[in-house]
Amino acid sequence: MTSLAQQLQRLALPQSDASLLSRDEVASLLFDPKEAATIDRDTAFAIGCTGLEELLGIDPSFEQFEAPLFSQLAKTLERSVQTKAVNKQLDENISLFLIHLSPYFLLKPAQKCLEWLIHRFHIHLYNQDSLIACVLPYHETRIFVRVIQLLKINNSKHKWFWLLPVKQSGVPLAKGTLITHCYKDLGFMDFICSLVTKSVKVFAACPGSSAQLRVLLSFYASTIVSALVAAEDVSDNIVAKLFPYIQKGLKSSLPDYRAATYMIICQISVKVTMENTFVNSLASQIIKTLTKIPSLIKDGLGCLIVLLQRQKPDSLGKKPFPHLCNVPDLITILGGISEIYDISPLLRYMLPHLVVSIINHVTGGETEEMDGEIYRRHLEAILTNITLKNNLDHLLASILFEEYISYSSQEDSDSNKVSLLNEQFLPLIRLLESRYPRTLDIVLEEHLKEVTDLKKQELFHQFISLSTSGGKYQFLADSNTSLMLSLNHPLAPVRLLAINHLKNIMETSKESIDESFIKEAILTRLGDDSIDVVLSALSAFEIFKQHFSSEVTVVNLLNLFRRAEPSKNREWYKVLEIAAGVLIKEEILSENHHLANQVVTQLLPYMVVISDDKESAEMKIAVHLSKSGICSLHPLLRGWKEALENVFKSTKSGKLIGIANQKMIRLLADNINSGDPSSMLKMVEDLISVSEKEAYNLRQKVTFHVIMSVLVGCCSSLKGTHFPFAMRVFSLLQKKIKKLESVITAVEIPPEWHCELTLDRDIPVELWAHYIEQLNTGQMIAVEDSVLLVFALKNFIHAVKVPQCFPKDDRWWNPEQLKGDSRDCLHLLIELFETILAGTDAVHFRVLMNLSIKVHLEDVFQLFKFFSVLWTYGSSLSNPLNCSVKTVLQSQALYIGSTMLSSQKAKEKHQLVSASSPVVISLLINLGSPIKEVRRAAIQCLQALSGVQSQFQLIIDHLVPKAEEITSDATYVVQDLATLFEELQREKKVKSHQKLFETLKHLLNCVYNCPSYIAKDLMKVLEHVNSEVVLSHLLPMVEKLLEKVQKEPTAVLKDEAIVLYLILGKYNEYSASLLHKDPVSLDIFMKAVHTTKELGPGMPTIQIAALEKITKPFFAAISDEKVQQKLLGMMFDLLVDCKNTHCAQTVCSVFKGISVNAEQVRIELEPPDKAKSLGTIQQT
């Protein structure tokens, strides 16, 4: 089409449209165009009038359109021949009608009315904009598409050309398409906005019209907001286009229109940075119109908060502020919003204006025509009910101070008005202090630097007198600075003066200083560098003691002990004496065991004797503490006062340190053993916590060794070893030994002390004296520590006693079955063995190893049961002992075992190699270890047993000559044993069969009574040993494990699960013939196939594992067709009944792999026989 033709088409009048002249097809909303051509005017008129009558029953306002659009006159009206004025009036009536009709568009009566208007007035040609405005909110419906298909919009220059795809495809207009067009075509955006304003204006005359506008306003809000969200860049043009409509929305009294406007404002605030004047105007209008719709006050405030939060204007000015303050329940609503959202931007505007308004109201400044008290009430309510965040508390405190000083410093300020202002400010400042204790202090400290002349000092004092903590800012005459600054002055004499002044205030109560300031000042000065200041602060602490909690008292006084250095300054003795006195008087210590334990553990280092000089400060503190009452306060120290006195009386100079510390160790250990178990256990934990800390000075180091000896001493009592406690103590001892490992193994302990290392008695007195002497000289401290740790380890060995319940006579020490003390004992023996073994390069550790074996494993058979645990426990997956046996320890234990086996007499060797001993099985499974050194050590052990008669002699003598191959290849032993026992599968019997059979039987019997991790490794070693004999011997084990899986699946250990999988692997072509010989084997296999339990992450179900054993060779090796049929039937049943897809896939894989004859399949698939129907009367 040429350009001229397009222009002519645009200028053409609707009445020239060719469709109006055609009677073959007529535009219609309700009918097909051809069917509509057959409908006469009377019928169309009747349809329209029927629709109107139905609408009148819903909404009487439609009555006004009866005469102009639905009367007999309208029926005969031909608009193409009417004057311009008549057509203009007609268009206005149609437009107004369509606005009224829009809320009911989806109803059939409304569509009937439209049908008449299309038929008679051709609104689809003459009134396209009004028609689209009517139906646009329903753009996602089919009827909307029907309306669009009536329009002539094929011209690309047409205003509604963008709707052509909807017309052509018949698919409703997608929301996304509508939104995209909205922000790209500002004319369309204006169309939507003006549609809303027109509709609101029309319906404003109708009472209760909000319901009719709900659909349109919902469409308006969702479309404009979504367009703002979708637009990558919201331009100034878009904002300018929307702003007039936003203003109209804010002025509207319709809740939905106002709510939609709030949503649009929020979205513009998020997407665009606006000029301050624009933001101020918008915020001002929001504030001024808040109260017009009470139900939307909260939404309006939320909108205002978002606007201020995103735009951050400099100031909104004071004009809107009175309107904001007049909002009903303002602070209550803001409090509710603040619980979920941040309202700081609005408060940042309100708080300064509230303070200024309070001052103006009191002083008669700018007055508004409203209740002046409202400002003070609002500020009080904010402080009471809303938490001030983002430094707003600081802002408020600063404004209060600055505005107060500003007004009070004016030359014409009235003293009476200042007094009134004080009355108004006093409760506000006190309230601010109670909610935000530190804020006012910080603000006053900041402004204190600005106070230079006397006038300002006076005003400053006047302001702080309103606060509860005014006294701390009073200027001290002697230092010419405030109390607060004096307390933190760099010169100690000034600080001393300040703390003395503070004591005077406390005693006389002359000035108002808040309690928190006094407490903080005292506690801070307790940490002062000057002893004089500390003594004064301690005196103040005693005066103010009732204001401190027991916890605070204990913590801060104990800190004095931690930092005290009596050897450098004897004045510390006086400080500690007073501190101890205050602590002992603390009544709560007798009730609060935790605090009492804390006090004892922290004071214990000062009770340990570290000097022979009775006049030294250290000794005086120790004596004072023993007599102070602390010993009667806590059961741990019961009797220490008398014990120390006896030591002083009976001990010569030079031996006082050793004997006093020995006495303390025995006394504390006895008190722990004889005390209440639960409270003493807690005390022990606290002692361990103290010992775990790094010791730096002499006192701490000596205390550590004293506590270590106490802990070791109370591991055991007459009742036996307390193993949970012993393990905790050993963990501490082990940690300290490892830390000094390089020193402790290199140190040379004189041979004369080796005898001492074997005796069950305390650390020698001489050693204590020597240790402290070395500490004082600062020489070789690590060496001395190491020696004391070696003696502590010796004492620990003696302290640990094997419990009566330990299963010494069992064939295996089975960690999986051990409980309580037995399990802990075995764990401890392993850890102890590993620790001693790590240092056996040193003579003293070899002495300790001999001692440990003598004390705990003197019987050779018990020793090798222990070795069997060390040799095999590393493969346990469940780790019941909760300890680790690493490869290095395993290898070392094997080499030690080899040496000890070689040294045994023939009788002992015979017993160790028998079936009642775990030695051979433990060594055999180590031959399959992936670690070469483990295999080498294991075969070396077997070499020591070669030639000894036993049930396993055949296998030992078979393997020993192949030491080199076994050491080189981890899989060799598996293959070699398969070859060895292969003879049992041959039909021809030979003499060696019986011996082989007996050996294999003994091996398989071991599976039943050994730990599951050993059974697992044994089954791996025998992986390729297959026969009916093997499977028949293992069937009871499978049955037992399957039963456990059914009853207690969570109790099945991971090792047990693997044992079960490995034994199921014995169902193979070599043992398949057993299935028809022994029906039990078939039953157990089928039971496994029906066991669907999962035994652990990453493990297949038993069902899947069993099904995977039905391989082609296995199925073919089953000679009995009945057994084959049973297995086939079982698999077909699984396919029918099983809901597990993995199971179904596995069964299908099995079917693909095995060879089945057609007859077997027919038997399974053939339906049951049906009774034959009888054909004749005679047959019946």
From TrEMBL:
A family per Pfam: U3snoRNP10
Superkingdom of the source species: Eukaryota
Gene Ontology biological process: maturation of SSU-rRNA from tricistronic rRNA transcript (SSU-rRNA, 5.8S rRNA, LSU-rRNA); positive regulation of transcription by RNA polymerase I
GO MF entries: snoRNA binding
Keyword Ribonucleoprotein part of the UniProt annotation: yes
Compartments reported by the entry: Nucleus, Nucleolus
Keywords attached to this entry: Nucleus, Ribonucleoprotein, Ribosome biogenesis, rRNA processing
Record domain U3 small nucleolar RNA-associated protein 10 N-terminal: where: 238-354
Cytoplasm as UniProt keyword: no
GO cellular component labels: 90S preribosome; small-subunit processome; t-UTP complex
Similarity comment: family membership: Belongs to the HEATR1/UTP10 family.
Function: Involved in nucleolar processing of pre-18S ribosomal RNA.
Record protein name field: HEAT repeat-containing protein 1
Species per Swiss-Prot/TrEMBL record: Loxodonta africana
